[in-house]
Amino acid sequence: MAKKHRFISAISQMTENGAPVYAGFNHFRGEATFTSTFNTCYFENRTLEKIKGGGINDSNYKCKASGEYYRVMKFEKL
Fold first, then answer.
1. Are 40 and 50 a contacting pair, CB within 8 Å?
2. Which domain holds residue 45?
3. Which partner for 6 in 47, 61, 76, 78 could form a disulfide, CB atoms 3.0-4.6 Å apart?
4. Helix (H) or strand (E) holding 61
C-alpha cells in the first residue's frame, strides 16, 4: 500500500484572476491527506488533483468533482 502524508494545511479557493474567492475569509484550515506523490489531496469532502505545470490563476490543485481551483499550502506534518 502506498504511503499517505498528513499535513495541517490551508486551502484557498481561487478566482480566475488569481484572488481568493472569499475576501474576508481567505482560507479553510485543517488536516489534509496527500498521496505519496502529492498528486491528490483529500480535504474534508473534497478530492483535489494536482495541476501539472501550475494553474492559470496561482492555484496548484483543481477539485475533481466541481472543477474549482484551489491553492493548497502545507504547514505542519502530522
1. yes
2. 5-77
3. 78
4. strand 61-63
Q: Return the residue matching grid coordinates 484551489.
A: 70
Structural domain count of the chain: 1
Query: For residue 12, what are the contacts with CB-CB under 8 A and spacing of at least 6?
Result: 20, 21, 26, 27, 28, 70, 71, 73
As a whole number of angstroms, the distance between CA 32 and CA 74 comes to: 8
Q: Answer yes or no: is pLDDT of 26 > 70.
A: no
Mean pLDDT of the 20-24 span:
61
Q: Which residues of 30-66 are buried (b: 16+ CB within 10 A; e: fewer)?
A: eebebeeeeebbebeebebebeeeebeeebbbbbeee
**Cell triple for 42:** 483529500
